[in-house]
Design brief:
The chain is mostly helical. It has four helices and no strands. The N and C termini lie far apart (112 Å).
């Protein structure tokens, strides 16, 4: 390999190592961002709760003032019908005062409603974005774990294949040695048989010849009949 190719290979390996470290660091940063975002969203939920509480109080106040407006309006009409103009005017002035208060409180209520609506929309979008990002991070982590496991299995399989081949070769050598040993034992037994004469007896038996000169049953019968005649 030339120096240029060697340098290119080393530089590629270094870049891959640096990228792997950068990717790992990026995942850690995103994890921290997710934790920070969730804390911020919790704070937003708390603030939203406070605004909703103020909005409800403002609604109650506006409703109460409007109810008073209706009440004093009826009082003004009733006093006017009774000819009590002074009381009727006083009630009318009270109605006007209450209507101004109602307008002021309604402006507060409208502001709370607007803030509540905007905050709900923004929180909903933020939570959706956090969930999407969290899902992508989990997917990247899961994919990285699977690929790491696959690489480990592939490496182990490659090593196991080499080990299995070595074991099979050893097994063949053992079988060959055992066959050789078995043949040697058979040869030794055969040689011992020849030396003791048992091999000759075996050959006579295979040829149908009885050793030791013993007579067959038919031969013995012939001898007995011949002896009787004699």
């Amino acid at each position: 390999m030339s120096l240029r190719r060697l340098w290119t290979a080393l530089r590629g390996a270094t870049n891959e190592g640096l990228e792997a470290v950068a990717d790992t660091q990026a995942i850690r940063i995103l994890d921290q961002e997710m934790r920070d975002s969730k804390k911020e969203l919790q704070s937003c939920d708390i603030n939203l709760t406070k605004i909703m509480a103020k909005r409800k109080l403002a609604e109650q106040k506006v409703n109460s003032i409007n109810a008073d407006v209706d009440t004093y309006t009826q009082h003004a009409i009733a006093a006017s019908e009774q000819g009590n103009d002074e009381l009727a005017i006083e009630c009318a002035e009270k109605v006007e005062e209450l209507e101004h208060s109602a307008e002021t409180e309604q402006s507060f209520l409208d502001s709370f409603l607007k803030s509540e609506k905007a905050l709900k929309t923004n929180i909903k979008k933020a939570k959706s974005n956090v969930r999407k990002m969290e899902q992508q991070i989990d997917q990247v982590k899961a994919t990285a774990s699977v690929q790491k496991a696959q690489a480990s299995v592939s490496s182990h399989h490659s090593g196991a294949t080499s080990k299995v081949k070595t074991a099979l070769d050893s097994l063949e050598r053992i079988k060959a040695k055992q066959a050789q040993r078995s043949a040697e034992l058979d040869a030794a037994e055969e040689l011992a048989g020849e030396e003791s004469g048992s091999d000759l007896e075996k050959k006579l038996k295979n040829a149908g010849i009885k050793s030791g000169g013993t007579t067959s049953g038919s031969d013995k019968l012939a001898q007995l009949l011949a002896k009787k005649k004699g």
